[in-house]
Amino acid sequence: MNVFTEALAWLFSPDRWQGSYSLPTLFGQHMYYTLVSVLIAAVIAVPIGWLIGHTGRGREVAVAVSGAARAIPSFGLLVLLVLLLGVLRVPEAAIITFVLLAIPSLLAGAYTGFEAIDRRVLDSARAMGMTEWQVFWKVEVPLGLPLLVGGIRSALLQVIATVTIAAWVNLGGLGQPIIQGIPLRKFDQVLGGAILVAVLALVVDLIFALLQRAAVPAGVRAAPRKRRSRTALKATAAATA
Fold it and tell me: Do the beta carbons of residue 220 and residue 232 sit within 8 Å?
């Protein structure tokens, strides 16, 4: 408990909020690497996932690639890329590492969102005369959006947690107090950095949980309520019969 109190005192110390290693600066660095990496990964993975979900082809390859990417140790990959690209290209090495980490979740969210759609809905859209592009953009994308947002949510959380290792190669971020404090045995600083990363992850998770719920089309959200209402009416009728 004493360490926790000291960690809070370290967090709210005036020294933590000014200078080149201030917490706002480290937070900005952490979010920069997170957002840039997830954005690049989304540009790569989402169109591929949508294509797989729409055509039904290539799913096995996508699953294999995603599984292989998940199995790669992030820290080992970061060190390898730094050695290959050179110490002058450490930011590029870090972003490549985080992009590879984010791709599997985004890819899975994109194609599973399309696969989860009832085929009868797609058949009805085509029967109404919709073109394949209209089916894709007006039916599949809106109905598949909640699972895609879930994939983005998962990717962001994974990258937020992993960006802490960027401090090992002197890229800053909220991992800096943790990496710096371990050899110095400054446990208040280590715990303070860990609290910041945990709070950031929880806030992002909450925001995207709300976005994922909001991404469900209104008609889909209303359908369960309508079914429950019909069930309740039938039960009432049966009870009064």
Answer: no
